[in-house]
Design brief:
By secondary structure, this protein is of the alpha/beta class. About 35% of the residues lie in helices and about 25% in strands. The chain folds into 3 domains: about 120 residues, Periplasmic binding protein-like II (D-Maltodextrin-Binding Protein, domain 2, 3-Layer(aba) Sandwich); about 80 residues, D-Maltodextrin-Binding Protein, domain 2 (3-Layer(aba) Sandwich), CATH 3.40.190.10; about 70 residues, Porphobilinogen deaminase, C-terminal domain (Double Stranded RNA Binding Domain). It has 10 helices and 13 strands.
């Protein structure tokens, strides 16, 4: 293939740029026969505006402006954290996920102020920071004494404010994938097992969006798509879709694939979006195993079983 310019849309945060450069590095590697000039276009999203005001954001707050730029041809592809892409209407018509690279760790981690505490050993009535309702519900289920404090800001800012004592917190919970991509793995005090903290749908995955009719760009990113990752997140997103969930909803799921079978575990608050249930730490967890041939069906099936248990079934 001859040379071409590839314009990549991304948010301007340190993590978003690191993730974008990870993807573009993979694209270069798998297209070594193509002379690629890759240009980054930083696009500010409504989610970034919300973070600057420490305010809540909508389900597509970190993606819609970038997706619009892709649809109009201002950029050739977009790189998102998959957990920021709503499962029920992932992006505008005319766009598709051209690639899902190999998943980084999907797990959550604890970073403590003292640099040595675990979630089990941290002091009684410790103050733990998170911006995620999903994490809040599971922390409350594991230890009812914890005081969960809502915090916002990019990864490095959160760590600095905890370590300096500016936030008067004993620790924060963050995604392991982001810390690894930023080279901050040494900050982790505990990787939280899934029995304590089931991750967000698609956590650890990057989604590379392209225009459905842009065959040239689709060909460029096809080589970085990982089939196993796609199977797992398809099941997770189908599960979330049944509950109408997005990255800010109290819904968690993790799928793993082995020898043609998917093991999918899901968790929801006993009454999704109920502050009372979240405060009481009520969490329903179920799992299912099935063929990887139809991960969408498997995700829907688990959700239907759990909705029945919640009294939400037909």
């Amino acid at each position: 293939m001859p040379g071409r310019i590839l314009v990549v849309g991304t948010r301007g945060s340190e993590l978003a740029l690191a993730q974008t450069r990870l993807v573009t590095g993979l694209v270069r590697k798998t297209n070594s026969d193509v002379q690629l000039e890759i240009r980054e276009k930083i696009i500010r999203t409504s989610g970034d505006e919300g973070l600057s005001r420490s305010a809540g954001t909508g389900k597509d707050a970190f993606t819609k402006e970038i997706d619009h730029s892709l649809l109009t041809g201002e950029i050739d592809l977009a790189v998102h954290s998959l957990k920021d892409v709503p499962s029920e209407r992932p992006f505008e018509d005319g766009l598709e996920i051209g690639a899902l690279p190999v998943r980084e760790s999907p797990l959550d981690v604890l970073i403590s102020k003292d640099g040595k505490s675990t979630l089990g050993s941290i002091r009684n009535k410790a103050r733990i920071g998170t911006s995620s309702i999903r994490r809040k519900m599971q922390l409350a289920a594991y230890r009812r004494d914890l005081e969960i404090v809502e915090v916002h800001g990019n990864v490095t800012t959160r760590i600095r404010k905890v370590k300096s004592g500016e936030w008067s917190l004993d620790g924060i919970v963050l995604a392991e994938a982001g810390l690894k991509r930023l080279g901050l793995g040494d900050e982790i005090d505990e990787v939280l097992p899934t029995k304590i903290m089931l991750p967000a749908v698609g956590q650890g995955c990057l989604a590379v969006l392209v225009r459905s009719k842009d065959e040239e760009t689709k060909q460029l990113v096809r080589g970085i798509d990982d089939h196993g990752t796609r199977e797992c997140v398809t099941a997770e997103r189908a599960f979330s879709r049944e509950f109408g969930g997005g990255c800010n909803e109290p819904i968690a799921a993790l799928a793993t694939v082995n020898a043609g079978e998917i093991f999918l575990e899901g968790a929801v608050a006993n009454s999704v979006s109920s502050d009372k249930i979240l405060a009481e730490g009520g969490v329903l967890r179920r799992s299912i195993t099935g063929s990887s041939v139809d991960p969408e069906h498997l995700g829907k099936k688990l959700a239907e079983e759990m909705k029945y248990s919640l009294g939400k079934g037909a």
